[in-house]
Amino acid sequence: MKNIDSITHLRGESVYLDDIPLQHGTLYAVAFDSPIAHGRISSLKLEAAAAMPGVVRIFTAADIPGQNQIGGIVADEELLASEQVHFCGMPVALVVATTEEHARQAVKKIELQIDPLPVITDPREAQAKGELIVPPRTFRIGDTAGAWPECAHIFEGRTDTNGQEHLYIETQGAYTLPAENGVIRIYSSTQGPTAVQRTAARVLGIPMHCIEVDVTRLGGGFGGKEDQATTWALLCALATYHLRKPVKYSLHRMEDMRMTGKRHPYSADFRIGLSDDLRIIAYEATFYQNAGAAADLSPAVMERTLFHCTNTYFIPHVTATAYSCRTHLPPNTAFRGFGGPQGMFVIEAAIAKAAEELGLHASDIQQRNLLRTGDEFPYGQKADSEAHECWQKADELFNIGKIRQDIAAFNAANPVYKKGMAVMPICFGISFTKTLMNQGRALVHVYTDGSIAVSTGAVEMGQGVNTKMLQVASTVFSVNPGRVRINSTNTYRIANTSPSAASATADLNGRATEMACQAILQRMKTVAANAMQATADNIAISDEWVHVNGQRSDWDWNRLVAETYSRRVSLSEHAHYTPASLHYDASKEKGHPFAYHVYGTSITIVTIDCLRGTYGTDAVKVVHDAGKSMNLPVDIGQCEGGIVQGIGWMTMEEVVYDKEGRLRSNALSTYKVPDIYSVPKEIDIHFLETTKDNAAVFRSKAVGEPPLMYGIGAYFALRNAIKAFNPSGHLAWDAPMTPEKVLLGLYGQPVNVSDQPDNIPA
Ligand code: MTE
Ligand code: HPA
Ligand code: MOS
């Protein structure tokens, strides 16, 4: 089934925040944000700005009626800076005016004086100074100290991965409306309506039932709106609270890039030990996460890094420690993979380094160590592994040996162009790592005309979750999909939602939808059974007709609905779903945090131009463990999008902050994202259709985040291509592998771009 939004998207009729019709008297808000990364506010002068035409009022921290606090995990982030600023882009004041242009003009007249304090941008420096968001955590299995003497080969190194701008097509924003009895309705571009509701209640000092949050859809979130849509919703809500007027704020792209956090950059040290027959015996890693100026979701992201530090390999002795380091950058946040990719990069670099030093292919080590069912992860859960199946199927379909031979022949014949390939097997845990967040809810109504409305906690952000929810309802009732409508995500219909994140949205809300539909169906069957002198077990609905003992009756769906209603039997149901058997003990760092894992293997082939340092991706070939996909076009779209986004992170997207903590890559002219010319020439995705039971909705495994990690293969493929040209070239293990770095790898010494920004004129 096609994505249900495809036609309205194409016609431009789909409703995003900016498409909501405005109420008469709507005012416009624009934030004034700190130009300095760290310092004490010595004076804030608003008079000149307040005197500008159209200005209604300017709000500061002093106007907040409740707590000036938006931190979700740690209470360490103010909505509006009161005494100190902690990052460039931190909101300090909010101008509200009759037009957006008036608000923007007035913002320029605000005078802020700051006594600067020292700025830290490097996570290792922050760690050395004791600037940690939360205490460090260590995952352990076996005994690495005891295992090193057993290892035939030991390699060490340092890796660095950079941040990534979410670049959702729709920038962040909010529109808030006053309603009766002190209620505020918030239209927000958020992945987490309840987070917005809860935080608004805290900041405004009013109960959550006074805040209605409504989300129709997002023009992309990618994690950037899991936590950080809250700021704009709250700023507008603050103005509506005081003025009792509708207030809108839709960020400009450069504001959004400057003021919001990104994927966490990580620096890491690794040590890997192998046996003579290439078994990985021991692995140690220390991760320095660049959290930015406030916790945001960093502790949870850090935890997922540790959960994924061994990727898809069984390693008997592991010690992995992670530090969440406080720097003066905008708080970094969720981004597709949520710290998992950062952890996986390090083990892949360790394996690649071992392979380079031993003169082998990394794939020889990778394949040798893939997880088998029953193997234990460092956090205690046992694998139910498809790792070997995916790898073998990929080899069978694509022939890794033949690809390698063809590349060797090409490289031998071409002095200027070189090809490289890498295999990237993945394993990604599905469930929120915070066990209590694994809850989904659905509210299903069957109306008397036979149409069906479904509300869930799921936020549609392009990933196709609404299409899947619709499929669940139409499948359970066995009715035409056209009968089902998915309503907006609304905190008055569905309470206490977890954000749409962790790739678990379809599972959690889909299983709840299934339960709600089943409950209604069961009541309808009882009605039919009573009328037809049968038992409910002998009643089935199939293609909109009631069947008794396998025989079609003369009741169609509409008759069934009418009969149920006329007997005063409820045609509505609210259901709550939570996956069984999840638990985790953080004091021991052991448990069963994931409902299941998603596996896969990709092969990436790249070509570099050794004169220019430019490159392209020839192909990404994948065998992906989708369980039993309930929607092929949607799931293939998720794979393609994830792969391209992963390649962007690994090869071209370069977030640059200077030493003063100012974002230099603050527009699309200085921040390169994959375009139509840089996507792989071929993306070939095969689903491993497993028949095994799993905890997913309709056995269709979560697909939102895992494919991003295939993109990591592009980094290693590029390295291999560089080595084909210059085998003795020294390359640091840092990503992204930009054309500059490729050129330096081909001809010279590496330069760490993050050490360079002093050269960029202010
Ligand atoms: N796909 C699109 N088109 N837009 C998005 O914003 N977000 C990704 C992924 N795929 C995203 C996307 C992220 S970060 C997650 S966690 C999942 O979708 C969330 O949706 P799901 O739980 O329904 O997979
Ligand atoms: N994944 C994504 N988002 C989250 C998680 C997680 O594990 N935990 C909290 N928010
Ligand atoms: Mo996705 S990073 O869990 O929103």
Compact overview of the structure:
By secondary structure, the protein is of the alpha+beta class.
Q: What fraction of residues sit in β-strands?
A: 25-35%
Please describe the biggest sheet, giving its number of strands, its sense, and whether it closes into a barrel.
8 strands, mixed
Q: In order across it, which strands form the biggest sheet? A: 3-5-1-12-9-10-11-20
What ligands can be seen in this structure? Answer: ligand MTE, hypoxanthine, dioxothiomolybdenum(VI) ion
Alpha-carbon Rg, integer: 27 Å
* Poorly predicted runs: 750-762
Walk me through this protein's architecture.
There is one protein chain. This protein has 762 residues and is an alpha+beta fold. It contains 19 helices and 30 strands. The strands form 7 sheets. It has an 8-stranded mixed sheet with strand order 3-5-1-12-9-10-11-20. Strands 7-15-14-13-8-30 form a 6-stranded mixed sheet. A 4-stranded mixed sheet has the order 16-27-28-29, sandwiched between helices. Strand 18, helix 14 and strand 19 form a beta-alpha-beta unit. The protein is globular, with a radius of gyration of 27 Å. The relative contact order is 0.12. The site of dioxothiomolybdenum(VI) ion has 11 residues, from loops.
